[in-house]
Amino acid sequence: MTVDNVWSDITGLMPPKAVKEPKLRNAQGETFNDPYEWMRDKDSERVQKFVAEENDYCERRMAGLKTLRGTLFEEIKTRVQETDMSVPTRMNGYWYFTRTEEGKQYGIQCRVPIRGEDDWDPPSISASVMRGDALGGEEIVFDCNAESEGHDFFSVGGLDLSHDGRYLAYSVDTAGDERYDLRVRDLQTGEDFPEVITEVSGGGCITPDGKWLFYTRVDDAWRPYCVWRHRVGTPADQDVQVYNEPDERFWVGVGTSFDEEQIIIESSSKTTSEVLMLPVTDPEGEFQPFIERMPGVEYDVSFARFEDDGGDIPVALVIHNVRNPNFEIDVIDMRAHKPPYTLGEGMRVAQGSPAGCEPPQGRKFTPATRAIRYESVSSLSEISDNPEILQGVQGLRIEGIAMYRNFVALSYRANSLPQLAVMPKYAAKEDFLAGRPWGFGGIVPRVPGKLYSIGMSGNPSYDAPRIRYTTVSYTQPGELHEYDPVTDTDVLLKRSHVLGDFDPSDYAEKRMWVRVRDGEHVPVSLVWRRGLVPALEGTKEGLTDELIEAPRELILSWEDMSARYDRREAPMFITGYGAYEISSDPSFSVPRLSLLDRGVLYAVPHVRGGGEMGRAWYEQGRKLNKMNTFIDFIDVTAALQRNGIADPKRTVANGGSAGGLLMGAVANMAPQLYAGIEADVPFVDALTSILDTSLPLTVTEWDEWGDPLHNAEVYRYMKQYSPYENVKSADEREQEFGTRQFPAMFITTSMNDTRVLYVEPLKWLARLQEPEVEVDAVAKIEVEAGHGGVTGRYKRWQEIAYENAWCLAAMGIEE
């Protein structure tokens, strides 16, 4: 059943007709007439009318999917353990945990007191407690269900506690525009202090003694740019600004250091960062830089110590990219001198591989480094002073280090996946004092044939004797483990439980590679239900070196492509992002099971612009390399189709935000490969937005996309791919591709989105719905939500069911 069949009972229904009103945009010697720019006036009557009409049109078009939507929602709901609780995590004098209760939209934050200073084993959780009975001494810290009453939208910006657990700083957003109201609550009395600090960016931090708050505010472009200090219990109009970042490329954040000894301000752009610090004992003092800002250099710092009978050794653990694009970690002995320090000072513990990367800021290639630069991103790393565990891997990037009283943990990325290594603290101290590579050992998930994400989780206490970490794959629900590196003892604390007849062994996953048109090898993750995707039965699973070729020629008509397939190939849901160095790592999804159980192949091309293969992967998919992101996605799609794995007439693509830009670009560049596309909060009017410095985020985005306002080459390059400006009429598609085919489009947006303004997808929608374009396009527009859509788990499940029903229908799946 196709989308047209689903809607066949609605005859003569036409989309709203948007008025065209000439509006000229002049830049770089070119004039562009934008007929739908009038939609930027959010509060105007005609914009409100257009939104209402589009929502009504969408509902009427989707009416035939009501039964399928209900089925999908029930499948999600019946698989989720609605009444549940997390494993308690110790922080100072309490064990903290989250409860969920059947019928309630949000989690409830709770705690119980510790039983003694040596109490490091979480409270025993009985079956009755899992069903909702309280633990002995249980106290509710924050109940989002109660706090959200009377609001259609509710989002918590942050929760922060004083050291003794008495005072809670919390911030909430009830509109979706990411401007929060910040308050402080006395948990002994349950009463809030009288002052309310409005228009705050995200959460604030409270000092350990509970007497001071530090928080950030945003400017007119929604950029967090300044830090304020507030004395708890005093009027907000007495607050003092303590830091202001004038550079519009930089965002500012504030928090306390892990050891609770410093207030930390971090100011960062996409390519540069700086850390300033102030002792918590001197909250009215002046912030000082830990290391002076260097253009093009990113760094972060945490503080710890090596315990020693002769006097502890205070150290700073600095991760930076001043010498290595894929970062290195230096450990600085802070006894040497007072700050500021310099980048590169101290003992280097680990470094990434520079293969395929651009040179660090301000440095030039030598003949030797030039040879490294032109190695493939996937070259094996062999760096002599690295720990042994980092030898012989691909795409090595160092991501972080954490030091506790009893262990040290190293996070890194290799072989396209996140990795975690750990070692006893005493051994790290010995290696540090001896000046030799540290003897980290890897934590390896114990189930073969899976693509795992792994990382630290729930480790807020420096004194914790064991490290907690989580693992998850596409087919294996998340697990929380606790590992003791001294005894090599690993304990499973909790495995996420999927109700019903779910069995992980019924599903398979693998990562293979596609050689795209420029010769690069792009990883792609595939997930399917055994027995339902014939082409993948019996193939090697997990992380493989299997390589398939993308076709050299894509210019085939929809009809010609369809003739190559006999519908034995699987329907495919293919999704991607590819921006900001964000990696699309393995994760488990209950709603995804509904697709897999219907024979859908789930595919994730890890395209350039993301960070899966380290910094080089990002560099090769941003600014003047951005087209690689789109080409990678197209070539992976075509390779899976041409190799008999997926059916183009039942292929639906999905992406959100910057991934929505990806969706718009691939629809324009290769419409014959997709039956449908779901674009969520899509960034599709990229050139207009990046040219306008008065809009939210524009200047900060120049490091990602380039600056078309001042650079004609960047303007011309972005002009080639910005989706809104490159929509072709059906006649133009037939001339270029030999077909009038264009995927059916399902678009989502939110009127209060401050990251991708609603006007971008609305303008794009109006263009797609023009008669000469001949595109079947609908949009679901949230009136009370932001960039992340609706809040509340049941509301979110309903939205996912709504979206997945459309995708399944586009694949011809009706039940």
The CATH class designation of the largest domain is: Alpha Beta
Low-pLDDT runs: 1-9
For the record, what is the CATH homologous superfamily label of the largest domain?
Answer: Alpha/Beta hydrolase fold, catalytic domain
Describe the main β-sheet briefly. Answer: 9 strands, mixed
Number of helices: 18
Distance from first to last alpha carbon? 10 Å
Structural class: alpha+beta
**How much of the residues is beta strand, in percent?**
25-35%
Written description of the protein model:
With 815 residues, the chain is α+β, with helices and mostly antiparallel strands. It folds into four domains: 23-78 and 502-811, Rossmann fold (3-Layer(aba) Sandwich), CATH 3.40.50.1820; 84-150, no CATH class; 152-293, Methylamine Dehydrogenase, Chain H; 298-451, no CATH class. It is 20% helix and 30% strand. It is built from 18 helices and 41 strands. The strands form nine sheets. It has a nine-stranded mixed beta sheet, sandwiched between helices. The chain is globular. The model is unreliable at 1-9 (pLDDT under 50). This is Peptidase S9. It comes from Bifidobacterium tissieri. Residues 587-812 form the Peptidase S9 prolyl oligopeptidase catalytic domain. Belongs to the peptidase S9A family. InterPro entries: AB_hydrolase_fold (IPR029058), Pept_S9A_N (IPR023302), Peptidase_S9_cat (IPR001375), Peptidase_S9A (IPR002470), Serine_Peptidase_S9A (IPR051543).
